[in-house]
Amino acid sequence: MNLPIDVVSSVQVISNPYDPEYGKFTGAVSSVETKAGNLDTYHFSIQNLLPRARVRDGDIVGLESATPRLTVTGPLVRNRVAITQSFEYRFVRTPVQSLPPMQRDMKLESFDSFTQVDVSLTETHSATFSFSLFPEKLAYLGLNTFTPQESTPDLHQHGYQGAAQDRYIFGANGLLTSQINYQKYDADILPNSTDPYRLLLETTEGGFFDRQSRRSNRFEWQEIYQLGQRHFLGTHTLKAGLDYSHSSYDGRQAFSPVDVVGTAGYSLERIEFGAPTRFSVDQNEFAWFAGDQWRPGERVSVDLGLRFDHDSITSSTHAAPRAGVTYALTRDQRTLLKAGAGLFYDRVPLNVAAFPDFPSRTVLSLGAQGDVLGSTPYVNTISGALRNPRSATWNVELDRQVLEKLALRVAYQNRTTRDAFVVNPSAGWLAVSNAGRDSYREFQVTGIYQVRRHTVNASYVRSRAFGDLNDFNQFFGNNPVAVIQPNARGRLPFDAPNRFLIWGEIAAPKKIMLVPVLDLHTGFPFSTENQLREYVGPRNAYRYPRFTSLDLQVTKEIRLPGLGKKAKVGFGVFNLLNQFDPRDVQNNLDSYRFGAMFNSVPRTFRGKFVLGF
């Protein structure tokens, strides 16, 4: 789902969520908090009113983007009931620079609406109700140097979400939080041509081979009770909760033939598929958890938690313990040592459970005249009983408040995932199994420096991401890959061993605010292949060049004549240094352009206008 950005209060990525409230994941957790409505006064803001023209070869040809946002919040009943309403429309064309000028744009059009009502019933009782809509059309999904518009699919997705939350304070700091949530999400994958789909060395021809229609919904009910502090060998803050959810997924899947064309210009292989299929899957999940934040002394805090997760698809229940400790190394609390470890279990995606009902495939070997030299049929199957993926994570961290305005952090984390879902073709079977294993570890140094009205943040991360490469979603997600080669292990697609990021807010004279962002990281890995789309050599053994990007946003606060209202005007520059940061590479050894890089984003200017009152 999409939320208008103006209603978001904070976004936090929790890389080590040892709180037992969090479950059903094997990586990190993103926590998004929305803003509470104003109970006393109205506030109105409108942004990005001016559209941006699309320029091709020096001429203006239509619109490149229009992203207006409007938000209003204020009291329905003063000091009792507040409403927040936000609308965001997005029309954005994203160009692929290496394609012809009028055939290089992916096109996104969406409308996001968010309504929230905050109710203050008493000093100890409050409630929040929200409803959101998020229809979206993405044309030419996956457009790149080697896949023109006609060979890409369109993704149409739409849905809504309604939620209600009730918070009641009992006695001395006891808190009961009750929440129900219902979400409906539908998606359709549609080709842009009916011509046969052909994979050539330098480009792709014809209409996309996959057609999908997915209808899904999810209901969730959660109860969390936090007790007031208890005293026994220190202080304890106890928390317990229950979580029930029901998900359903109904879909249709249809595949068209795919030809793999070699250097001589004729088809070397053809992938044919079985008849279109329909399928339906339901899932019930139940979790119960308890946690204790124990403070045995002024300088030590220990978090203990235990969570049980039950999944109806795997008919299994898993215990997921986790623990964390914070210790103040100095009496002034300016140096903190933090450490933790935990076990986490993920849910089973519903399309994995439906995989045996997907259309089967047959791979034909072809001669120069189109004659069939051989064929290998593949039947979709799940190898063994499905299991919930699990990860074991631990970390250690040292935080130091060096100066009043300077804080540093040195940290290390390690995550190992087992039972991930991978796809592997062998002996007439296309099997999905829990054979996947991934590992991720990182060492990071971060710092934040604040002086007067200036803030500078910097971080360096040294990391390694390694594991199985035939992830299920790569072949059966929104933009699936047609050719499935045997699974292998190697660097994961997001592996970037060295990452350096620096950003800040610098207050200049005349109420001008500068926001620079410098991003440097090792290029992402890629594999080499031959004309049959077979991988050659170790997987992901090559890398894109180092990514270097300096962005800058400049805004100035002004007062509108005659209105007495404040506004912000300014501009942004992306890739200020105009560095060559390619996003596409010719990785086919049989191509005359093997190793060539394409599709870097040039220096780009953007205007900004914000009005609020």
Describe this structure in words.
The chain has a 33-stranded mixed beta sheet that branches. It has two helices and 41 strands.
List the helices and strands and how they pair.
Elements: E1 8-14, E2 29-34, E3 43-47, E4 52-56, E5 59-66, E6 69-77, E7 81-95, E8 105-122, E9 125-133, E10 136-139, E11 153-170, E12 174-191, E13 197-199, E14 204-205, E15 210-226, E16 230-231, E17 235-255, E18 258-261, E19 267-273, E20 277-297, E21 300-311, E22 316-328, E23 335-345, H1 350-353, E24 361-366, E25 372-382, E26 390-403, E27 406-426, E28 429-451, E29 454-468, H2 472-476, E30 489-491, E31 498-508, E32 512-521, E33 525-526, E34 528-529, E35 535-536, E36 542-543, E37 547-559, E38 566-574, E39 584-585, E40 597-598, E41 604-612
Parallel strand pairs: 13-18, 25-28
Antiparallel strand pairs: 1-2, 3-6, 3-41, 4-5, 5-7, 6-7, 7-8, 8-9, 8-10, 9-11, 10-11, 11-12, 12-15, 13-14, 15-17, 16-17, 17-20, 18-19, 19-24, 20-21, 21-22, 22-23, 23-26, 24-25, 26-27, 27-28, 28-29, 29-30, 29-31, 31-32, 32-37, 33-36, 34-35, 37-38, 38-41, 39-40
Question: What form results from the Cα inertia axes?
Answer: globular
Q: Into which percentage range does the β-strand content fall?
A: over 45%
Mean pLDDT: 93
Number of helices: 2
Task: Supply Rg.
Answer: 27 Å
- Structural class comes to mainly beta
How far apart are the termini? 28 Å
> Which residues form runs of ≥5 with pLDDT under 50?
none
The count of β-strands is 41
Report on the biggest sheet.
Answer: 33 strands, mixed
Give the oligomeric state of the chains in this entry, treating copies of one chain as homo and distinct chains as hetero: single chain
| Helix percentage range | under 10%
